[in-house]
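Bug #2210: token dump truncated for Membrane protein?
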Amino acid sequence: MTALFALATSLLWGLADFGGGLLTRRIPALTVVAVSQTCTIVVLGTVVAVTGGWHEAGPQLWFAVGAGVVGTVAMLAFYRALALGPMGVVSPLGSLGVAVPVAVGLVLGERPGVLQFGGIAVAVVGVVLAGGPELRGAPVQRQAIALTLVAAVGFGAVMALISEASTTVTGLFLALLVQRLTNVVVGGSALLATVRRGGSALPGDGGALVVVRALPALAFVGLADVAANGSYALAAQHGPVTVAAVLASLYPVITALAARSFLSERLRTVQAAGAGLALLGAVLLATG
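Reproduced locally. Full output below:
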């Protein structure tokens, strides 16, 4: 079950990253975060009310609050990086945050088998190569890489925090709701501060109409991201965190494939090889 949930996480995060990257090229990143996460609150609030998740409230929800604060900063940095640089370069570097939950798992005493250690190494190398990252270039490219590395650490911390925020499925719904409420509070506050400093919350070309027309896409990005967090938490609860984290980090392969399909971004040889290694690593992790 760990492998299944973790691979579902990769699929959902990959699609969310692709959609978020596209939207941020037309709409300010803060607005994308605030609106997309507000959409998830409506859905999660309904689910929590129906399942009685409020009864699962407890001190562990502080982990969800922490995930919400860190996750907002990570999302803003990542979406901005996706808007500045090629998705096939930014997304794989963002997955390096997998080092955080893997390290947590090892500190807590998890010891993957030989095949799984091999799978972790192969998968991480594959994910990086899948983007064919270029560390040289214009200042905007260096800025995109710096933002991506900030996002990577943040995403890794979110993975570690959200896996500790609940022990039951209904509790997980509540934890995700708390996380998203925190996302909106932090992101909305940053957006308000930006507007007060003279910035704009709306696109310069088209204004509010662009945001309204993009609502379905914004809702999809938010729901895919929250579903990915949920499936990762389940993966971490059903098996080793080290395995769940690495399998969940394969999402750049999905982002690269989506960019190829919808934006006609061509995969270079190194990217195709990286995708193959990432899949091989997934197989080793699932069977080790």
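Output looks complete on our side. The chain has a mean pLDDT of 80. Marking as cannot-reproduce; reopen if the truncation happens again.
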